[in-house]
Specification:
By secondary structure, the chain is an alpha/beta fold. The chain has 15 helices and 16 strands. GO terms for molecular function: glutamate-5-semialdehyde dehydrogenase activity; NADP binding.
Protein backbone atom coordinates (compact mmCIF):
# COMPACT_ATOMS: atom_id res chain seq x y z
CA UNK A 1 0.00 0.00 0.00
CA UNK A 2 1.44 3.37 -1.02
CA UNK A 3 0.78 6.80 0.41
CA UNK A 4 -0.72 9.67 -1.59
CA UNK A 5 2.63 11.47 -1.80
CA UNK A 6 3.95 8.54 -3.86
CA UNK A 7 1.27 8.59 -6.54
CA UNK A 8 2.74 11.36 -8.74
CA UNK A 9 6.36 10.25 -8.55
CA UNK A 10 8.40 8.49 -11.22
CA UNK A 11 8.47 4.70 -10.86
CA UNK A 12 12.07 4.76 -9.59
CA UNK A 13 11.40 7.52 -7.10
CA UNK A 14 8.16 5.89 -5.95
CA UNK A 15 10.01 2.63 -5.37
CA UNK A 16 12.67 4.39 -3.31
CA UNK A 17 10.11 6.19 -1.17
CA UNK A 18 8.12 3.03 -0.60
CA UNK A 19 11.27 1.17 0.46
CA UNK A 20 11.97 3.83 3.08
CA UNK A 21 8.41 3.78 4.40
CA UNK A 22 8.21 -0.02 4.35
CA UNK A 23 11.37 -0.27 6.42
CA UNK A 24 10.13 2.45 8.75
CA UNK A 25 6.88 0.53 9.30
CA UNK A 26 8.86 -2.64 10.01
CA UNK A 27 11.01 -0.74 12.49
CA UNK A 28 7.91 0.62 14.19
CA UNK A 29 6.47 -2.89 14.43
CA UNK A 30 9.54 -4.36 16.14
CA UNK A 31 10.25 -1.35 18.37
CA UNK A 32 8.05 -2.65 21.24
CA UNK A 33 9.92 -5.97 21.12
CA UNK A 34 13.35 -4.33 21.32
CA UNK A 35 12.16 -1.97 24.05
CA UNK A 36 11.39 -4.99 26.27
CA UNK A 37 14.75 -6.75 25.87
CA UNK A 38 16.48 -7.46 29.14
CA UNK A 39 19.94 -6.11 29.84
CA UNK A 40 21.52 -9.58 29.48
CA UNK A 41 19.80 -10.02 26.10
CA UNK A 42 21.08 -6.65 24.87
CA UNK A 43 24.60 -7.39 26.04
CA UNK A 44 24.53 -10.79 24.35
CA UNK A 45 23.59 -9.13 21.06
CA UNK A 46 26.43 -6.62 21.32
CA UNK A 47 29.07 -9.13 22.40
CA UNK A 48 28.07 -11.58 19.68
CA UNK A 49 27.96 -8.84 17.04
CA UNK A 50 31.45 -7.67 18.03
CA UNK A 51 32.89 -11.14 17.54
CA UNK A 52 30.96 -11.64 14.30
CA UNK A 53 32.49 -8.45 12.88
CA UNK A 54 35.99 -9.57 13.84
CA UNK A 55 35.42 -13.01 12.34
CA UNK A 56 34.40 -11.36 9.06
CA UNK A 57 37.10 -8.68 8.90
CA UNK A 58 38.27 -9.74 5.45
CA UNK A 59 34.75 -9.54 4.03
CA UNK A 60 34.26 -6.07 5.52
CA UNK A 61 37.61 -4.89 4.16
CA UNK A 62 36.70 -6.19 0.71
CA UNK A 63 33.48 -4.19 0.72
CA UNK A 64 35.30 -1.13 2.03
CA UNK A 65 37.93 -1.38 -0.68
CA UNK A 66 35.19 -1.21 -3.30
CA UNK A 67 33.99 2.01 -1.67
CA UNK A 68 37.53 3.42 -1.63
CA UNK A 69 38.02 2.66 -5.31
CA UNK A 70 34.66 4.20 -6.19
CA UNK A 71 35.46 7.20 -4.00
CA UNK A 72 38.77 7.85 -5.74
CA UNK A 73 37.07 7.61 -9.12
CA UNK A 74 34.43 10.08 -7.92
CA UNK A 75 37.15 12.51 -6.82
CA UNK A 76 36.59 12.37 -3.05
CA UNK A 77 39.08 14.42 -1.05
CA UNK A 78 41.78 12.77 1.03
CA UNK A 79 39.89 13.83 4.16
CA UNK A 80 36.68 12.08 3.04
CA UNK A 81 38.63 9.01 1.98
CA UNK A 82 40.20 8.90 5.45
CA UNK A 83 36.75 9.00 7.04
CA UNK A 84 35.63 6.23 4.72
CA UNK A 85 38.62 3.92 5.03
CA UNK A 86 38.58 0.83 7.26
CA UNK A 87 41.51 -1.37 8.22
CA UNK A 88 41.99 -4.21 10.69
CA UNK A 89 42.78 -1.80 13.51
CA UNK A 90 39.68 0.31 12.89
CA UNK A 91 37.45 -2.74 12.67
CA UNK A 92 38.91 -4.00 15.95
CA UNK A 93 38.15 -0.58 17.42
CA UNK A 94 34.56 -0.74 16.16
CA UNK A 95 34.10 -4.18 17.70
CA UNK A 96 35.66 -3.01 20.95
CA UNK A 97 33.20 -0.12 20.97
CA UNK A 98 30.32 -2.61 20.99
CA UNK A 99 31.89 -4.46 23.91
CA UNK A 100 32.38 -1.21 25.80
CA UNK A 101 28.71 -0.34 25.31
CA UNK A 102 27.76 -3.82 26.52
CA UNK A 103 29.66 -3.10 29.71
CA UNK A 104 27.88 0.17 30.39
CA UNK A 105 24.90 0.56 32.68
CA UNK A 106 21.57 0.05 30.95
CA UNK A 107 19.65 3.33 31.21
CA UNK A 108 16.22 1.82 30.51
CA UNK A 109 14.14 1.49 33.65
CA UNK A 110 16.27 3.88 35.70
CA UNK A 111 14.12 5.83 38.15
CA UNK A 112 14.95 9.50 37.72
CA UNK A 113 12.83 10.71 40.60
CA UNK A 114 9.91 9.60 42.69
CA UNK A 115 7.73 10.54 45.60
CA UNK A 116 4.44 9.80 47.32
CA UNK A 117 1.60 12.29 47.08
CA UNK A 118 -0.23 13.41 50.19
CA UNK A 119 -3.14 11.21 49.11
CA UNK A 120 -0.95 8.10 48.99
CA UNK A 121 -0.43 7.79 45.21
CA UNK A 122 3.12 6.68 44.47
CA UNK A 123 4.73 8.40 41.49
CA UNK A 124 8.01 7.89 39.70
CA UNK A 125 9.71 9.08 36.51
CA UNK A 126 11.36 6.25 34.60
CA UNK A 127 13.73 6.20 31.61
CA UNK A 128 12.25 4.58 28.50
CA UNK A 129 13.51 4.11 24.92
CA UNK A 130 12.79 6.76 22.30
CA UNK A 131 11.56 4.17 19.78
CA UNK A 132 12.57 4.32 16.09
CA UNK A 133 15.77 6.31 15.70
CA UNK A 134 16.72 7.56 12.24
CA UNK A 135 20.41 8.28 11.55
CA UNK A 136 21.59 10.28 8.54
CA UNK A 137 25.36 10.34 8.21
CA UNK A 138 28.24 10.74 5.78
CA UNK A 139 31.16 8.56 4.82
CA UNK A 140 32.12 6.95 8.13
CA UNK A 141 31.02 3.29 8.19
CA UNK A 142 31.95 3.05 11.89
CA UNK A 143 28.84 5.16 12.60
CA UNK A 144 26.76 2.25 11.29
CA UNK A 145 27.96 0.00 14.09
CA UNK A 146 28.12 2.70 16.76
CA UNK A 147 24.50 3.64 16.07
CA UNK A 148 23.45 -0.01 16.22
CA UNK A 149 25.21 -0.62 19.52
CA UNK A 150 23.92 2.46 21.28
CA UNK A 151 20.41 2.03 19.90
CA UNK A 152 20.11 -1.60 20.98
CA UNK A 153 21.52 -0.98 24.47
CA UNK A 154 19.07 1.89 24.97
CA UNK A 155 16.16 -0.20 23.63
CA UNK A 156 15.76 1.65 20.32
CA UNK A 157 15.54 0.52 16.70
CA UNK A 158 17.95 2.28 14.30
CA UNK A 159 17.03 3.20 10.74
CA UNK A 160 20.33 3.99 9.05
CA UNK A 161 20.72 6.25 6.04
CA UNK A 162 24.44 6.28 5.25
CA UNK A 163 26.06 8.03 2.34
CA UNK A 164 26.40 6.65 -1.15
CA UNK A 165 30.19 6.78 -0.76
CA UNK A 166 30.03 4.10 1.97
CA UNK A 167 27.29 2.01 0.39
CA UNK A 168 29.19 -1.28 0.10
CA UNK A 169 30.72 -1.04 3.58
CA UNK A 170 27.42 -0.14 5.24
CA UNK A 171 25.55 -2.88 3.39
CA UNK A 172 28.03 -5.53 4.55
CA UNK A 173 28.09 -4.28 8.13
CA UNK A 174 24.30 -4.22 8.43
CA UNK A 175 24.01 -7.71 6.95
CA UNK A 176 26.44 -8.99 9.59
CA UNK A 177 24.52 -7.22 12.36
CA UNK A 178 21.22 -8.61 11.07
CA UNK A 179 22.74 -12.11 10.94
CA UNK A 180 23.69 -11.71 14.60
CA UNK A 181 20.16 -10.69 15.54
CA UNK A 182 18.63 -13.58 13.65
CA UNK A 183 21.07 -16.09 15.14
CA UNK A 184 20.00 -15.00 18.63
CA UNK A 185 16.30 -15.19 17.81
CA UNK A 186 15.62 -11.47 17.40
CA UNK A 187 14.05 -9.72 14.38
CA UNK A 188 16.41 -8.68 11.60
CA UNK A 189 14.35 -5.50 11.28
CA UNK A 190 15.89 -4.27 14.55
CA UNK A 191 18.49 -2.61 12.31
CA UNK A 192 17.92 -1.60 8.70
CA UNK A 193 19.82 0.29 6.01
CA UNK A 194 17.87 2.74 3.88
CA UNK A 195 18.53 3.43 0.17
CA UNK A 196 21.12 6.08 -0.58
CA UNK A 197 20.97 6.49 -4.36
CA UNK A 198 19.35 9.92 -4.14
CA UNK A 199 19.03 12.61 -1.48
CA UNK A 200 15.28 12.23 -1.65
CA UNK A 201 15.45 9.19 0.63
CA UNK A 202 16.66 11.50 3.41
CA UNK A 203 13.54 13.61 2.99
CA UNK A 204 11.40 10.48 3.13
CA UNK A 205 12.99 9.53 6.44
CA UNK A 206 12.83 12.93 8.11
CA UNK A 207 9.17 13.44 7.21
CA UNK A 208 7.94 9.99 8.29
CA UNK A 209 5.85 11.30 11.17
CA UNK A 210 4.17 8.55 13.13
CA UNK A 211 6.79 6.01 12.08
CA UNK A 212 10.07 7.64 13.11
CA UNK A 213 10.44 9.08 16.61
CA UNK A 214 13.73 10.94 16.20
CA UNK A 215 16.30 11.74 13.51
CA UNK A 216 19.95 12.51 14.21
CA UNK A 217 22.08 13.95 11.39
CA UNK A 218 25.83 13.48 11.60
CA UNK A 219 28.06 15.05 9.00
CA UNK A 220 28.90 18.38 7.41
CA UNK A 221 27.04 21.64 7.82
CA UNK A 222 25.10 21.16 4.59
CA UNK A 223 23.71 17.78 5.62
CA UNK A 224 22.87 18.91 9.15
CA UNK A 225 21.08 22.06 7.97
CA UNK A 226 19.11 20.13 5.34
CA UNK A 227 17.88 17.65 7.94
CA UNK A 228 17.12 20.17 10.70
CA UNK A 229 15.30 22.58 8.38
CA UNK A 230 13.45 19.94 6.36
CA UNK A 231 12.38 17.53 9.10
CA UNK A 232 8.84 17.16 10.38
CA UNK A 233 9.95 14.62 12.99
CA UNK A 234 12.04 15.69 16.02
CA UNK A 235 15.76 16.08 15.38
CA UNK A 236 18.91 16.46 17.45
CA UNK A 237 21.45 18.71 15.78
CA UNK A 238 24.99 17.35 15.85
CA UNK A 239 26.85 20.46 14.77
CA UNK A 240 30.10 20.93 12.96
CA UNK A 241 33.24 21.62 14.94
CA UNK A 242 34.86 24.99 14.27
CA UNK A 243 37.02 24.60 17.39
CA UNK A 244 39.34 27.28 18.82
CA UNK A 245 42.31 27.08 21.17
CA UNK A 246 43.46 30.19 23.05
CA UNK A 247 46.98 30.53 24.47
CA UNK A 248 47.05 33.03 27.32
CA UNK A 249 50.11 35.00 28.47
CA UNK A 250 50.03 32.93 31.69
CA UNK A 251 50.24 29.61 29.85
CA UNK A 252 53.04 27.10 30.08
CA UNK A 253 54.06 27.76 26.49
CA UNK A 254 55.54 24.34 25.75
CA UNK A 255 52.38 22.65 26.97
CA UNK A 256 50.20 25.12 25.08
CA UNK A 257 52.07 24.36 21.87
CA UNK A 258 51.79 20.62 22.44
CA UNK A 259 48.04 20.91 22.99
CA UNK A 260 47.33 23.01 19.90
CA UNK A 261 49.54 20.84 17.66
CA UNK A 262 47.80 17.73 18.98
CA UNK A 263 44.38 19.26 18.49
CA UNK A 264 45.20 20.16 14.90
CA UNK A 265 47.27 17.22 13.67
CA UNK A 266 46.07 14.16 15.60
CA UNK A 267 43.35 13.58 13.03
CA UNK A 268 42.27 16.46 10.84
CA UNK A 269 39.09 14.89 9.47
CA UNK A 270 37.22 14.80 12.79
CA UNK A 271 34.93 17.44 14.26
CA UNK A 272 37.06 18.01 17.38
CA UNK A 273 40.08 19.10 15.35
CA UNK A 274 41.40 22.56 16.30
CA UNK A 275 40.71 25.01 13.48
CA UNK A 276 41.91 28.32 14.97
CA UNK A 277 44.67 29.20 17.41
CA UNK A 278 44.21 32.49 19.28
CA UNK A 279 47.34 34.15 20.66
CA UNK A 280 47.30 36.57 23.57
CA UNK A 281 48.65 39.95 22.45
CA UNK A 282 50.59 40.06 25.75
CA UNK A 283 52.75 37.14 24.62
CA UNK A 284 56.16 38.21 23.33
CA UNK A 285 56.68 38.19 19.59
CA UNK A 286 59.18 35.38 20.11
CA UNK A 287 56.58 33.27 21.93
CA UNK A 288 53.91 33.92 19.30
CA UNK A 289 56.34 32.95 16.57
CA UNK A 290 57.30 29.80 18.46
CA UNK A 291 53.66 28.66 18.46
CA UNK A 292 53.23 29.29 14.75
CA UNK A 293 56.53 27.70 13.77
CA UNK A 294 55.69 24.57 15.77
CA UNK A 295 52.54 24.20 13.69
CA UNK A 296 54.43 24.86 10.46
CA UNK A 297 57.08 22.32 11.46
CA UNK A 298 54.21 19.83 11.79
CA UNK A 299 53.28 20.59 8.13
CA UNK A 300 50.30 22.78 9.03
CA UNK A 301 49.51 25.70 6.71
CA UNK A 302 48.85 28.97 8.56
CA UNK A 303 45.96 31.23 7.57
CA UNK A 304 45.32 34.67 9.01
CA UNK A 305 45.90 38.38 8.56
CA UNK A 306 49.23 38.19 6.72
CA UNK A 307 50.26 41.70 7.78
CA UNK A 308 49.48 40.95 11.45
CA UNK A 309 51.36 37.66 11.38
CA UNK A 310 54.38 38.96 9.49
CA UNK A 311 54.76 41.69 12.14
CA UNK A 312 56.16 39.08 14.53
CA UNK A 313 58.08 37.10 11.96
CA UNK A 314 55.63 34.59 10.46
CA UNK A 315 56.46 33.62 6.88
CA UNK A 316 54.48 31.77 4.23
CA UNK A 317 51.07 32.51 5.75
CA UNK A 318 47.93 32.51 3.62
CA UNK A 319 45.52 35.43 3.78
CA UNK A 320 42.43 34.20 5.62
CA UNK A 321 38.97 34.59 4.16
CA UNK A 322 35.70 34.89 6.06
CA UNK A 323 35.06 31.26 5.14
CA UNK A 324 38.31 30.24 6.85
CA UNK A 325 37.19 31.81 10.14
CA UNK A 326 33.65 30.41 9.87
CA UNK A 327 34.05 26.81 8.74
CA UNK A 328 35.91 23.59 9.46
CA UNK A 329 38.93 23.03 7.24
CA UNK A 330 39.19 19.32 8.12
CA UNK A 331 42.72 19.49 6.73
CA UNK A 332 46.26 20.44 7.70
CA UNK A 333 45.28 24.11 7.79
CA UNK A 334 44.77 26.34 10.81
CA UNK A 335 43.85 29.97 11.36
CA UNK A 336 46.03 32.10 13.63
CA UNK A 337 45.00 35.40 15.19
CA UNK A 338 46.31 37.74 17.88
CA UNK A 339 43.61 38.77 20.38
CA UNK A 340 43.42 41.13 23.32
CA UNK A 341 43.68 38.68 26.17
CA UNK A 342 40.95 36.34 27.33
CA UNK A 343 38.25 38.93 26.61
CA UNK A 344 39.42 39.18 23.01
CA UNK A 345 39.52 35.40 22.71
CA UNK A 346 36.00 35.03 24.07
CA UNK A 347 34.71 37.74 21.72
CA UNK A 348 36.28 36.00 18.70
CA UNK A 349 34.88 32.64 19.78
CA UNK A 350 31.41 34.10 20.30
CA UNK A 351 31.47 35.41 16.73
CA UNK A 352 32.73 32.32 14.95
CA UNK A 353 32.16 29.27 17.18
CA UNK A 354 29.79 26.48 16.17
CA UNK A 355 29.37 25.64 19.85
CA UNK A 356 31.31 22.39 19.71
CA UNK A 357 34.60 22.56 21.65
CA UNK A 358 36.73 25.51 22.77
CA UNK A 359 40.06 25.23 24.58
CA UNK A 360 42.48 27.36 26.56
CA UNK A 361 46.05 27.11 27.81
CA UNK A 362 46.58 29.21 30.96
CA UNK A 363 48.01 28.97 34.47
CA UNK A 364 46.03 31.87 35.90
CA UNK A 365 43.07 30.33 37.76
CA UNK A 366 40.93 33.44 37.31
CA UNK A 367 41.50 33.39 33.55
CA UNK A 368 40.58 29.71 33.37
CA UNK A 369 37.40 30.29 35.36
CA UNK A 370 36.39 33.27 33.23
CA UNK A 371 36.89 31.22 30.05
CA UNK A 372 34.90 28.29 31.47
CA UNK A 373 32.04 30.55 32.59
CA UNK A 374 31.71 32.75 29.53
CA UNK A 375 32.45 30.51 26.56
CA UNK A 376 29.23 29.02 25.17
CA UNK A 377 30.07 25.55 23.86
CA UNK A 378 29.15 21.94 24.40
CA UNK A 379 32.66 21.29 25.73
CA UNK A 380 35.29 23.60 27.21
CA UNK A 381 38.84 22.30 27.56
CA UNK A 382 40.97 23.90 30.26
CA UNK A 383 44.61 23.01 29.61
CA UNK A 384 43.63 20.06 27.43
CA UNK A 385 43.52 19.45 23.68
CA UNK A 386 40.22 19.81 21.83
CA UNK A 387 40.76 16.22 20.70
CA UNK A 388 39.34 15.00 24.01
CA UNK A 389 35.74 15.75 23.01
CA UNK A 390 34.79 12.20 22.19
CA UNK A 391 32.16 9.88 23.59
CA UNK A 392 34.55 6.97 23.98
CA UNK A 393 37.05 9.17 25.83
CA UNK A 394 34.22 10.31 28.10
CA UNK A 395 33.60 6.67 29.03
CA UNK A 396 30.46 6.32 26.92
CA UNK A 397 31.80 3.37 24.91
CA UNK A 398 30.79 5.08 21.69
CA UNK A 399 28.79 8.12 20.72
CA UNK A 400 25.90 8.71 18.38
CA UNK A 401 27.17 12.22 17.73
CA UNK A 402 28.07 15.45 19.49
CA UNK A 403 25.06 17.68 20.02
CA UNK A 404 25.63 21.42 19.74
CA UNK A 405 22.04 22.34 20.53
CA UNK A 406 20.75 23.03 24.02
CA UNK A 407 17.52 21.03 24.28
CA UNK A 408 17.41 17.41 25.46
CA UNK A 409 21.11 16.68 24.94
CA UNK A 410 24.36 18.62 24.57
CA UNK A 411 27.86 17.33 23.89
CA UNK A 412 28.68 13.66 23.17
CA UNK A 413 25.47 11.65 23.13
CA UNK A 414 25.33 8.05 24.25
CA UNK A 415 22.92 5.86 26.19
CA UNK A 416 21.11 8.27 28.56
CA UNK A 417 20.65 10.81 25.76
CA UNK A 418 18.89 8.16 23.63
CA UNK A 419 16.10 7.74 26.13
CA UNK A 420 13.04 9.68 27.12
CA UNK A 421 11.00 9.23 30.27
CA UNK A 422 7.50 8.51 31.40
CA UNK A 423 5.65 9.06 34.66
CA UNK A 424 4.12 6.06 36.38
CA UNK A 425 1.57 6.71 39.11
CA UNK A 426 0.20 3.92 41.26
CA UNK A 427 -2.82 4.33 43.44
CA UNK A 428 -5.36 2.08 45.19
CA UNK A 429 -8.48 3.18 43.39
CA UNK A 430 -7.95 6.90 43.86
CA UNK A 431 -10.29 9.38 42.20
CA UNK A 432 -9.67 13.10 41.90
CA UNK A 433 -12.14 15.48 43.53
Amino acid sequence: MTDKATENLSPERAQEREEVLTKARAAKDVAPVIAQLSTPQKNEILETAAQHLLDNTSIILGANERDIVNGKEAGLSDQLLDRLRLDEERIAGIANGLRLVAGLQDPVGEILQGSTMDNGIEMKQVRVPLGVMGMVYEARPNVTVDAFGLAIKSGNVPLLRGSKSARESNKQLVELLQDTLEKLGHPREAVQLLPCETRDSVQDLITARGLVDLVIPRGGAGLINAVVLGATVPTIETGTGNCHFYIDKSADLDKGIAMVVNGKTRRTSVCNSTETVLLDSALSDEDKLQVVRALQDAAVTIHGDVEELSAFGVENAVQATEEDWAEESLSMDINAKVVGGVDGAIAHIQKWSTGHTEGIAAQDADILQKFANEVDAAAVMLNASTAFTDGEVYGMGAEIGISTQKLHARGPMALPELTSSKWILQGTGHTRP
